[in-house]
Amino acid sequence: MNKLYISLENIKHNYKLLKQRLSASECAAVVKANAYGLGVDKVARALATAGCKKFFVATAEEAFELRSILPIEEIFVFHGVQNGEAQDFVDKKIIPVLNNPNQLSRWEAKNPAAVHIDTGMTRLGFEIEDIDLLKGYNITLLMSHLACAESRQNPMNYNQLLEFDAAAKHLPYVHRSIANSYGIFLGKEFHYNLARPGIALYGGNPTPLQPNPMKQVIHISSQIIQIYEIKKPKTVGYGGLYKASAGSTIATIPLGYADGLPRNLSNRGKVYIENYQVPIVGRISMDLITIDISKLPINHQKIGQEVQIVGDKYTISDMAKDAGTVEYEILTRLGQRYKRIYV
């Protein structure tokens, strides 16, 4: 059975480390997409016990689910309020992040709301010239989102900061927020009143090109279910992309892209058996991968041998880099077939 170990203790540690980094600013938690695939019920409760009082999700449905888990904490919805949702937001004390005049028209001025100002992402948010439309509304938080925060030297970061400061002058007494996980590490000028980390809580590296200050949150393990002793050269997997040489040993692992393993790791990814790095060979299929265990000590070349897919030796950051993707995608694509073990 494939096992997904999720460390709630390390999530709490990561939250406290980020909060310490923020000093006087408040630290919220982004738990959208089922807490990045790790289970919002247990993750949100753990974060609340660590001292988190503000939570962000993407959709109304996520907010309503979270409200059933956390009865008193503040819950914000990035996508704002859509048609027919306003009364449910009010009844459940959910705070929309209003993104445009259309959403503003659906919301009663007396009810608390956050507002997103677009400073460079061009996805969601009010244009700065529309900010005067907010006069008379009960705005409790002004926020924007950094487009290039993972690239510390990118001038876009400070350009957005200037745009945000210009917008904030129209609402001088409203709390402000622009920093995501990466933004927390850009400098104090990005912290304002509130930061909204997501990926760093779950073990992603908020300081690319530098050692990861966060503790790893997930470990994935599987096992060898079949072994082939290759007597003459033969191809392995769909498309025959890999040719195993005579004398090599190929093992099969019951895990594939249905379980979130990126198909891009075909013929280029790796796993670990004990302290040994073992290459993935052939194409990753829906339920299976094949690995070359020829160089393993013979006592590890056996059916039932545990295989580490993700862990301290091969982190989500390592896997994302090898697959040409981002850590967010690795976490949120984890399938439902794992035995999930919370520690």
Detailed description of the structure:
By secondary structure, the chain is of the alpha/beta class. The protein folds into two domains: 8-202, TIM Barrel, CATH 3.20.20.10; 218-342, Lyase, Ornithine Decarboxylase, Chain A, domain 1 (Beta Barrel). Helix content is 24%, strand content 23%. It contains ten helices and 20 strands. The strands form five sheets. The protein has a seven-stranded parallel sheet. α1 (8-22) packs across α3. The two termini are 18 Å apart. The mean pLDDT is 97.
What keyword list fits this structure?
single chain; 343 residues; alpha/beta; 2 domains; 7-stranded parallel β-sheet; 5-stranded antiparallel β-sheet; 10 helices; 23% strand; elongated
**Architecture (CATH level 2) name of the largest domain:** Alpha-Beta Barrel
Helix content: 10-25%
CATH fold name of the largest domain, please? TIM Barrel
Number of helices: 10
The tally of structural domains comes to 2
The CATH superfamily of the largest domain appears as Alanine racemase
Helix-strand string? EHEEHHEHEHEHEEHEHEEEEEEEEEEHHE
Poorly predicted ranges: none
What structural category arises from helix and sheet content?
Answer: alpha/beta
Give the strand order, joined by hyphens, for the main sheet.
3-4-5-6-7-8-9
What's the level 1 CATH class of the largest domain?
Alpha Beta
> Rg from C-alpha positions?
23 Å
Quick one: biggest sheet?
7 strands, parallel
